[in-house]
Task: inverse folding
């Protein structure tokens, strides 16, 4: 891991090291545009052909059958089923709580004029579930549960197949307990284009949800002009803030928990006490050697770095520039610094708040903005699965009270039809 000193970096240099390393946009754009053309033109055939090209699997059918789902359910370990159901209950509890504040009370803005806001679910949503080096079945819970709580009418799912041409049993089990019946065997950019444009088998989504690799993320951004997306969610990342009170073992474990996601993941340590750095780095090395995914971790750590600061305030300042997907305040006296946080997807407070809890079972959502998009995007929540419609009711009293104001403004904008729609109502009696 590269080491930088906060006070030796200019703002330009801070911004530079905070920029995520991505494969050339031109290369990705060229590849996904070819995929896009094929999916739009050939539809199901393109999905089958692209799955064979990228995954070396020949599909007989795109949609997962009920028989396949039941077989998968029987293959999931009972202890894992119990753990998944505990996580499901916590996620449901947290997201149901969000429903309470979605609809506003009526407010009388002018005497006789009443305005309010109503939440309505998006009707058709498509969920993308990654299944690369590991089956991310927890993402099914994070996407499907709020979709169902929000009241989305049609919820369907796309996920890549493994080398045998099937989907991980855990993914299908989570889909089943969340009530997702329409599941399709397709991954990558082609899944995004299929959900955005539809095929003979895969329906069109009004909004697409879910994280993925660079190709998935670029495809989501590409279709965002015709189909809403949740957020740009690419390779995973964490920023850990530590100080002299931090436990080096805990800090190292947080760094590695994110690094093992994939070779493009990034872990950043911001430390206000240089004395414990050697111990942390030693722990990183020791824990890496014990990991089943150590080769992935070693590659990921090449993208990662350390920033040494003088104070915790400086550490938070750097974090706000970086805008991490996951921010961990891994030290004891964290409460006084919470209000300094401006940019983060999800924040983990204190030495026992392992990021793994948020990934699986604490109840918050783990679908979060990456690559600095936490400066302008929120993590997934109930509101993501709906839209707010505003209503206004203008009574005769309200009309009389506000008509002059509207007429004056319409005249000034030279919109005579707007003016007329008010004028014709003046003193009108049925």
Result:
């Amino acid at each position: 891991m590269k080491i930088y000193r906060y006070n030796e970096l200019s703002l330009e240099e801070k911004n530079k090291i905070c920029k995520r390393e991505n494969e050339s946009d031109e290369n990705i754009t060229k590849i996904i545009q070819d995929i896009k053309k094929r999916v739009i033109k050939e539809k199901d055939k393109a999905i089958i052909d692209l799955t064979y090209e990228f995954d070396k699997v020949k599909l007989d059918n795109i949609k997962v059958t009920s028989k396949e789902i039941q077989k998968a359910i029987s293959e999931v370990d009972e202890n894992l089923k119990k753990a998944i159901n505990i996580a499901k209950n916590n996620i449901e509890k947290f997201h149901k709580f969000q429903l309470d504040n979605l609809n506003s009370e009526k407010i009388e803005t002018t005497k006789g004029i009443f305005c309010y806001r109503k939440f309505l679910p998006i009707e058709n949503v498509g969920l993308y579930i990654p299944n690369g080096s590991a089956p991310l079945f927890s993402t099914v819970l994070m996407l499907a549960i709020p979709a169902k709580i929000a009241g989305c009418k049609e919820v369907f799912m796309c996920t890549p197949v493994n080398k045998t041409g099937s989907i991980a049993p855990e993914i299908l089990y989570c889909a089943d307990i969340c009530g997702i019946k329409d599941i399709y065997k397709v991954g990558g950019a082609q899944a995004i284009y299929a959900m955005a444009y539809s095929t003979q088998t895969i329906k069109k989504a009004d909004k697409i949800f879910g994280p993925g690799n660079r190709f998935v993320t670029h495809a989501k951004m590409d279709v965002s002009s015709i189909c809403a997306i949740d957020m740009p969610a690419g390779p995973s990342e964490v920023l850990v803030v530590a100080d002299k009170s931090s436990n080096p073992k805990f800090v190292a474990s947080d760094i590695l928990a994110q690094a093992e996601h994939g070779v493009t993941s990034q872990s950043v340590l911001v430390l206000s006490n240089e004395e414990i750095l050697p111990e942390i780095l030693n722990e990183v090395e020791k824990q890496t050697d014990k990991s089943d995914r150590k080769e992935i971790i070693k590659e990921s750590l090449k993208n990662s770095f350390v920033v040494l600061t003088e104070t915790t305030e400086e550490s938070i300042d750097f974090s706000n520039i970086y805008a991490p997907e996951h921010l961990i305040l891994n030290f004891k006296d964290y409460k006084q610094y919470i209000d300094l946080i401006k940019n983060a997807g999800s924040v983990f407070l204190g030495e026992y708040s392992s990021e793994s809890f948020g990934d699986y079972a604490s109840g918050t959502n783990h679908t979060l903005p990456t690559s600095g998009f936490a400066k302008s995007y929120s993590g997934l929540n109930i509101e993501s699965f709906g839209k707010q419609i505003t209503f206004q009711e203008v009574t005769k009293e309200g009309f009389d009270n506000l008509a002059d104001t509207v007429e004056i403004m319409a005249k000034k904008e030279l919109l005579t039809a707007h003016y007329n729609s008010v004028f014709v109502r003046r003193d009108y009696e049925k």
Remarks:
- The chain has three domains: 2-20+235-363, 25-229, 395-423.
